[in-house]
Structure formats: C-alpha cells, structure tokens
Amino acid sequence: MNYRHAYHAGNFADVLKHVVLMMLVEHLRKKPAPFFYLDTHAGRGLYDLSEASAQRSGEYKNGIGRVLDAPAAALPAEIAAYARLVRESAGKSHSAITAYPGSPLIVARMRRPTDRLVLMETQPREAAALRAAIGRAKLVSVLESDGYAALKAQLPPRENRGLVLIDPPYESDLEFDRVLAGLELAHERWPTGTYCVWYPLTDRAGPVRFHKDLERSGIRKILDVKLSVLPIDAQVGMAGAGLVVVNPPWTLDERLKELLPQLHKLLSPEGSGGTSVTWLVPE
After folding, report:
1. Angle, vertex CA 205, rays to CA 230 and CA 4, nearest 5
2. CA 123 → CA 51, 271, 277, distances in Å?
C-alpha cells in the first residue's frame, strides 16, 4: 500500500470509513457540549480524483463514484448524507471528483463553532495542503508531527468527550503493533473517549493477530466492522477493510447491521465479499 492516500482516495474502504465517521460525529453533535476530534494521520484533506495518481488506480470509480451515481432517493439516510456532504464540499467551482474531501474536511464541515479539531500529518507537503484546504478556523489546528505521539500529548482533552481517528498507511504488518500500542496508551489516558481505527483486510497475518491482541488488551466495548468487495484470499492488495470502534455509541452496532448490507450491495453489485458487525470485546 502506498502512503500517499491520493492513490486510494474515494475507494470502497474510504466510503466505509467516512460513512461510519459521519455517524460517530453526528452522535457527538446530539449534545450541546463541545466535542474534541483528533485525527492521527490526517493526510492532505482534499483530493483531486481526476489527477494521474487517482486515475492510475481508478479505485474511486467503484467507491465514491458508485455512491454519487446512485439516485439519492434510493440511498439510506446515512449514505445520502455522505453523498450530499461530498457534493457540498466541492462548492460551485469544483466537481465532487476534483475536490473530494478526506476525513479531516468531513469532520471540519460537520463541526460546530465550539468543537475543537487537532489534525496530525507528518509529511510536510501533505500538511501544507491540509492547511490550505482547511483554511483559518478557530479551534482547528494542523500539526506537522507524529500522530502516535499526539495520543499522549493531546489526551485527555479538556472537553472530555469526543473521537479519535487512527488511520495509518499500513505499509507493513508492523503498523498493527504501533496501532495497538497507541490505542492502549490513549485508552489508559482517556478511557471514556471513542476511538475509531481503520485497517485493511488482506490475506496477511496482520489483521488476525491485531484482533487477538485487542481481545487480550483489557480494553472493553470493542466493536469490529468489516466490508469486503472480494473474497479474502483474492490475489489483490486489499480485498476489504475494517473499522475497530472502542466505546461506540449505543445502538451503532444494530444500525450498522442494517446499513452495511445496503452499502455492500451498492459498492459490490456482483455480490462478492460481504459484511460483518461483531463485538470483539463486550462491555
């Protein structure tokens, strides 16, 4: 997998991540008290899917492309809200394909004036692009620093309610060890926060070992969400993607059990792969 998210922006894994991310943020918005959002691997924030890097892979065509092509009236409310935000983010001077929002911009669009965002990005060019995409906004910080270190430096937040997204590049299976160590540290410092960890589903041993390590970690309330568009043993880099959600909102699991089969049908009309929503560790 290539670190630069531009190669994979808008693919089926991005759609899964962003739909669930919006559901988590929408839950936080239900209470008037401000929330905190930390993005450990923020990326550049805005992607032009007409550029060569995205066109070379073409992954977005079977991801956000299918979402935008679907009739809005036929989409479940959460997916329709995602499609609407993507279109609105582009504005009048761009199309949804030339100005596709990543996770930090999605949350920035959804935040209220009192909600605080800290966006971490280690790559200088990506961080500069993210600052340009975000613009000047009170209580929104783009920090050119290590996202894992931020789990110690930024937690617990003064708001004492919020969400942490951990979405690294997984250039090797060793990344799972860093994620686990970071998640354990973060949860120790802020046990009531909600954590969302994205990971790829491949035929490598990393995802299976990651799940076993999570079960032994001592962390409670761990929900695992998976969506595959190909069989797990398919000879490709990534057959599916998953999200580990620690301290998920009440009823999120039940809603995702209804929603994910509909999302899968949209992203994999031929029926390959599948979905699952399971508790790795209950309360």
Report:
1. 65
2. 20, 38, 34
| pLDDT, tens digit (0-9, with 9 covering 90-100), for 73-103 | 999 999 999 999 999 988 766 777 788 999 9
Nearest 5 degrees, angle CA 70-CA 72-CA 74? 80
pLDDT in tens, 179-230: 999 999 999 999 999 999 999 998 778 999 999 999 999 999 999 999 999 8
Spatial distance between the Cα atoms of 178 and 74, rounded to a whole number of angstroms: 40
Q: What does pTM read for this prediction?
A: 0.94
- How far apart are alpha carbons 71 and 281 in whole angstroms? 37
Residue 69 among the catalytic residues = no
Give the active site residue among 14, 48, 167, 224.
167
